[in-house]
Amino acid sequence: MVAANTGVSPFEPSLTEHYILAHESLTICVRMKESQERMRERAHQLQGEVRRMFEAGKAKSAVELATLVDTIEHLGIDHYFRDEIAAAMRRVCSEELEFSSSNDLHVVALRFRLLRQHGIWVSADVFDKFRDDDGKGSFSPSLCNNPSGLLSLYNVAHIAIPGEKALDDAIAFTKRHLEGTKDKLKSPLAEQVSRAFDIPLPRISRRVENMHYVAEYGQEEAHDAALLELARLDFELVRCLHLKELSLTLWWRELYNDVKLPYARDRIVEVFFWACGVIPEEENSRARVIFVKVFAYASLVDDTYDVHATLEESQKFNEAIQRQVLSILQIVSFCGTRSLLTLCRWDERAVSVVPEYLRTLYLRTLQGFKEFEGMLEPNEKYRMPYVIKAANESHEPSFAEHVRVSTFSSGLPMLVAVVLMGVAGDVVDDHATRAALEWADGLPDMVLASGQVGRFLNDMASYTLGKNRKDVANAHECYAKEHGVTGADAFAAIARMTEDAWRTINRGCMEMDDPAMLPAVRLAVVDLTRSVEIMYLGGRRDAYTFGSTLSRISSPHYSSSPSRQLPAPLLLLCLATALLYLAAAAASAQSGFFGRPIRLLASLRSVPVSLLCLAVTALPAAPLLLLPLLPLPG
């Protein structure tokens, strides 16, 4: 069967078009095993010191305890102290009087944010004391002299639920006054305000914000040296694992060359950044690999439908997939999920209806799902049917119909199940994972709202860029046509709907029928949706499709990377990593692409190690070395 067009890709080339990570560069951290072991030993010692802080916290105020929890979470080391944080939050919740009697806006906002982030309801009435006319008027002008308090209020207002008008007022008030003073603010508050205006703290990817705060925390007068050192060590250990996991680029290159679909986006590194944003922890390596591979297959199919295949070809490919899915789900329905592994045989006979140029993609996709099934432990096999069903959820398409259908085409409802399929038991216990999969399978409002955020941000970015010739009508066009408004008015309306969807997610976190599910739901829904905000830059640009955006996104992150402030042994580790990477790349590249950075590196021999490491990050080879720190797509 002949393809619909020439097969030329309309997308920008990949960040990695001219080179692939060499195996040597991917095993650097394995060779540094002894150094890593020393780092882990030191990290373990520091964990003991931090636990003693929690024990001492029993004699401290609830405000001090809340500040400790917030700092630990902000630094990204909360996964070490889940039990201690849970106990601390119970105290923060119960000792309301200490916070409600405070006239410090930051203190009141801190408790409000922590409780809501942990799924505990607290009323926005706590901010009435900062408003005129007995809590019914505008926020008091006296707050304008407290920029840190204003920033705290601005951030917590983005954990609002539907109908909280007071928090709408808070956003408008704080943004107006912070914009008027941001040029006068000192570092790091100035940078924190700027980031919050781009994407508010409760909605930014954890990994991105952790990296920023690890670099900024040392500038605070009251910073704790043990917390800072632990955060730096943890960040470096996770970065090293992410670097090794980038062997996925070799898997992708083999797949991409095998399926022979040159029109498709070549974006495996960008997908990996996204996976790190959703599930960055060391324990979740399997979940990241599954996430990346599922997204890779989905991206190939998506690009085939969007820019290449005819309607007939798309229907035939979909028919073959549906045959496979129905066969599997019938087995599951009849025999139960425990029989899936022994009775389910992935039937490749449906390939006969697939267009010839798509048959390799079809067969490789089936092989991929076999691989995912094999990665699960026997007691985890029940997770597989949820992913298969979610990946093929079908609903029939006015504007309301478009929203309903495009929510599923955003891929977010499917990815919720994908994240839960691979999550480690050390991060979320299996009972919570099973309950969360059952819950997500029912497509609750929270899951649908996540899909809406993904779809709306995608369409907002598309509107900003302009419509491709083969694109179907997006949300803006449907809304503008139905309501008879301009594109700009439709854009504003979609932005409001995105905000409403976020508020539905916020409400869902505080209305869990089974609170034990909350860690799984926060991971699979909240963190996934946060990562979408980064993927689409808050609706300003599709950074996944347009890879050139990556360098612009990542440049501020290089300068604030925690590795700049690491102790000398770790600086040497960074330097060795960079040098080995460049050497391996130079050995494998015949085009001389790496000649310029190597000559530049040689010219910097007299620069101190710390500056040399920083210089290396600016080289063209550096993104694949350092960007695993960031879940930022291109």
UniProtKB/TrEMBL annotation:
<dbReference type="InterPro" id="IPR001906">
    <property type="entry name" value="Terpene_synth_N"/>
</dbReference>
<feature type="transmembrane region" description="Helical">
    <location>
        <begin position="609"/>
        <end position="630"/>
    </location>
</feature>
<keyword id="KW-0812">Transmembrane</keyword>
<keyword id="KW-1133">Transmembrane helix</keyword>
<keyword id="KW-0472">Membrane</keyword>
<dbReference type="GO" id="GO:0010333">
    <property type="term" value="F:terpene synthase activity"/>
</dbReference>
<keyword id="KW-0479">Metal-binding</keyword>
<feature type="domain" description="Terpene synthase N-terminal">
    <location>
        <begin position="34"/>
        <end position="196"/>
    </location>
</feature>
<dbReference type="GO" id="GO:0016102">
    <property type="term" value="P:diterpenoid biosynthetic process"/>
</dbReference>
<dbReference type="Pfam" id="PF03936">
    <property type="entry name" value="Terpene_synth_C"/>
</dbReference>
<dbReference type="InterPro" id="IPR044814">
    <property type="entry name" value="Terpene_cyclase_plant_C1"/>
</dbReference>
<dbReference type="GO" id="GO:0000287">
    <property type="term" value="F:magnesium ion binding"/>
</dbReference>
<dbReference type="InterPro" id="IPR008949">
    <property type="entry name" value="Isoprenoid_synthase_dom_sf"/>
</dbReference>
<dbReference type="InterPro" id="IPR008930">
    <property type="entry name" value="Terpenoid_cyclase/PrenylTrfase"/>
</dbReference>
<dbReference type="Pfam" id="PF01397">
    <property type="entry name" value="Terpene_synth"/>
</dbReference>
<feature type="transmembrane region" description="Helical">
    <location>
        <begin position="566"/>
        <end position="588"/>
    </location>
</feature>
<dbReference type="InterPro" id="IPR050148">
    <property type="entry name" value="Terpene_synthase-like"/>
</dbReference>
<protein>
    <recommendedName>
        <fullName>Terpene synthase N-terminal domain-containing protein</fullName>
    </recommendedName>
</protein>
<feature type="domain" description="Terpene synthase metal-binding">
    <location>
        <begin position="254"/>
        <end position="503"/>
    </location>
</feature>
<dbReference type="InterPro" id="IPR036965">
    <property type="entry name" value="Terpene_synth_N_sf"/>
</dbReference>
<dbReference type="InterPro" id="IPR005630">
    <property type="entry name" value="Terpene_synthase_metal-bd"/>
</dbReference>
